[in-house]
């Protein structure tokens, strides 16, 4: 029991670090989105010339950013896509 308590205490500092990583990813996604996507999908992905894409998952975002209907193609790596998906999920 005491050993378990010590393990829990040891794990505590990891929790804020994990939250920080998520926040950093969302912040990166926001920057990418504002620079590349906002003009057609609005500042949070709520829609405009392009549709409402809030909450869209990685497969749809990856497919769309290769060029979709009137949407231009973007050269985005996996990490950039994941960041944009995290931003869309946070809105
Ligand atoms: C020049 C305008 C324009 C820009 C810039 C743009 N899009 Fe789009 N996007 C569109 C249009 C038009 C559609 C298709 C019509 C619709 O969804 O209403 C679309 C559709 C989508 C879809 C939905 C695909 C589906 O399966 O329905 C996603 C996801 C998407 N865009 C993501 C992005 C992301 C991420 C970016 C930035 C990297 C971006 N778009 C930039 C115009 C744009």
Fold and architecture overview:
It is a single chain. This protein has five helices and no strands. The model has no long low-confidence stretch (mean pLDDT 89). The chain has 91 residues and is an all-alpha fold. 15% of the residues are buried. It has a single domain (21-90), classed as Cytochrome Bc1 Complex, Chain D, domain 2. The radius of gyration is 17 Å and the shape is elongated. The structure holds heme C. Heme C is lined by residues 36-37, 39-41, 49-51, 53, 56, 60-61, 64-65, 68-72, 74, 84.
Average pLDDT rating: 89
What's the alpha carbon Rg, rounded to whole Å? 17 Å
User: What is the quaternary state of this protein?
Assistant: single chain
The total domain count is 1
Bound molecules: heme C
Distance between the termini: 41 Å
Brief rundown of the structure:
By secondary structure, the protein is an all-alpha fold. It has a single domain (21-90), classed as Orthogonal Bundle (Cytochrome Bc1 Complex, Chain D, domain 2). It is 64% helix and 0% strand.
């Amino acid at each position: 029991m005491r050993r378990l308590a010590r393990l829990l205490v040891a794990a505590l500092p990891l929790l804020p670090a994990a939250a920080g990583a998520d926040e950093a990813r969302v912040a990166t996604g926001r920057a990418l989105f504002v620079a590349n996507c906002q003009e057609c999908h609005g500042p949070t992905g709520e829609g405009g010339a392009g549709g409402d894409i809030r909450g869209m998952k990685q497969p749809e975002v990856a497919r769309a950013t290769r060029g979709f209907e009137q949407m231009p193609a973007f050269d985005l790596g996996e990490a950039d896509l994941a960041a944009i998906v995290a931003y869309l999920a946070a809105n």
